[in-house]
Amino acid sequence: SSQPLTKLIINLSSTMKLSLASLVLLAASASAFTAVTPAGRASTSLNILAGTQSATERVANVMAARPEENEAIDALVKKNFPGAISNKAMETKVATILEAKGFTPANTLLCTSLCCDELARNLEDDLNKVYGHNFNLGGL
User: Fold this and answer.
1) How wide is the angle at C-alpha 105 spanned by C-alphas 124 and 117, nearest 5°?
2) pLDDT in tens, 2-34
3) Contact at 8 Å (CB) between 26 and 12?
4) Alpha helices in the chain (DSSP H)
5) In the structure, what pLDDT confidence band is assigned to residue 101 with cuts at 50, 70 and 90?
6) Could you tell me the pTM of the whole model?
7) 108 confidence band (pLDDT: 50, 70, 90)
8) Distance CA 137, CA 113 (A)
9) pLDDT tens, 45-93?
10) How far is CA 78 from CA 90, 91, 114, 123, 124, in A?
């Protein structure tokens, strides 16, 4: 409860000559770290994925469950957006690069900033299956 905090504030004020405003700020900021369970809200757990399966193995499993890519659409996208790559290619590259740097599904908090339209949902869903729930920064 707040009893130890009150004693700490009194001790600090007598030894450090803190102003009243500083003491109020200290008390207010300390209460910000009190655990609170909001009523009626969904879990905000990031769900780091434990286990020994590598990210590249997880990407392969995610892609194995996907239908084959449509070659006609892929050609159209590459014609209009030279250098564009598929989600499969990008996810594989990301997982390979991150693994080489020591990042695994068990030690990585996924943070994304993807376009909010429906085209990015597949990519976000795939990355969640590989690394666990993402912290979504939004995006344009």
Assistant:
1) 5
2) 555 555 555 555 555 545 555 556 555 555 555
3) yes
4) 3-16, 20-31, 55-64, 71-80, 87-100, 121-131
5) very high
6) 0.59
7) confident
8) 5
9) 656 676 778 888 989 988 888 888 888 988 899 999 999 988 889 899 9
10) 14, 18, 20, 18, 21
DSSP letters, 108-128, are ---EE---SSGGGHHHHHHHH
Longest dimension (CA), the chain: 76
Using DSSP, state whether 135 is helix, strand or coil: strand
Q: How far is CA 122 from the centre of its chain?
A: 16
| Dihedral of alpha carbons 101, 105, 107, 112, sign | positive
Report the C-alpha gap between 82 and 106 in whole angstroms. 35
How far apart, in whole angstroms, are the C-alpha atoms of residue 110 and residue 48?
8
Q: Do the beta carbons of residue 46 and residue 109 sit within 8 Å?
A: yes
User: Bridge partners of 136?
Assistant: 112
Q: What gap in Å lies between CA 122 and CA 46, rounded to an integer? A: 18
| Structure confidence at residue 107 (pLDDT) | 87
